[in-house]
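> call design_seq(struct)
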């Protein structure tokens, strides 16, 4: 018996029967087997839940091996490090903390096959495409919770790419969830520059649209959330931040909007000359 992860639970109401692999919550009235729990927790249909469980059960070692390979390549290929330096990410501590890597392309498949992983597994995880070629090429790679994110260093390719499946929960949430104040950014490179500047009460939603799991994480206790989304010229970032703030308030969260200079995100704010003192001032002037 413990706190239910499917709703805001203040006293233990979530019962797990390990002998029959069943669960039931006396608070929200939901229950079922492992597949049903994954459907509810990650907001998936049955087929997606099955794929997710298979990935967690059989493919996590493969994803870790791929992340380790890409991390090694970052220090062997100058173009990956050059891109990070251009984006203001320069300290080895942040690179190691985030386990940043680089996918040159046309080399992961060979390395993993030589390590004993079958090509079919690479294709099932999305590391290799149907033709057997590396899915990530010329991308900075960030390991996530059961997934990998690739940021293109080429202007001619789509900038963002995830492997198939859910992007998971809030990035590095375990490092931030105990804080009474949390800074929420939308991009992983935003996270990197803020972390480098000394802001550690920090997480990232990897986009302006939070999934149900991420939203529950933010609402898991009383806290102040500083929403520092991109100040897009079309207003999409500030608009998304405002909507999220309105959704958080009824759950006991104090939501404050961090107003960045127009056309800037936290990453460009720092690469454009901002520093920790300037960003702290933005936090102190954040509005409801």
């Amino acid at each position: 018996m413990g706190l239910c992860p499917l709703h805001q639970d203040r006293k233990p109401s979530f019962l797990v029967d390990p002998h029959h692999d069943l669960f039931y919550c006396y608070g929200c009235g939901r229950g079922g087997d492992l597949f049903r729990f994954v459907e509810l927790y990650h907001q998936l249909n049955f087929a997606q839940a099955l794929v997710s469980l298979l990935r967690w059960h059989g493919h996590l070692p493969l994803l870790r091996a791929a992340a380790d390979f890409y991390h090694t390549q970052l220090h062997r290929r100058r173009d990956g490090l050059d891109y990070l330096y251009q984006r203001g990410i320069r300290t080895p501590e942040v690179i190691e903390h985030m386990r940043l890597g680089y996918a040159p392309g046309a080399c992961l498949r060979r390395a993993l096959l030589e390590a004993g992983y079958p090509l079919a597994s690479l294709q099932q995880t999305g590391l290799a495409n149907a033709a057997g070629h590396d899915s990530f090429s010329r991308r900075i790679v960030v390991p996530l919770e059961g997934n990998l994110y690739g940021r293109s260093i080429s202007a001619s390719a789509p900038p963002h790419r995830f492997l198939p499946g859910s992007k998971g929960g809030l990035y590095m949430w375990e490092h931030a969830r105990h804080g009474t104040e949390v800074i929420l950014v939308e991009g992983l490179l935003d996270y990197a520059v803020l972390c480098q500047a000394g802001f550690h009460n920090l997480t990232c939603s990897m986009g302006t649209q939070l999934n149900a799991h991420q939203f529950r994480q933010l609402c898991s206790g009383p806290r102040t959330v500083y929403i520092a989304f991109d100040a897009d010229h079309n207003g999409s970032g500030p608009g998304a931040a405002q909507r999220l703030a309105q959704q958080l308030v009824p759950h006991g969260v104090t939501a404050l909007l961090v107003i960045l200079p127009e056309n800037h995100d936290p990453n460009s704010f720092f690469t454009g000359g901002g520093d920790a003192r300037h960003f702290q001032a933005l936090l102190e002037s954040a509005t409801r």
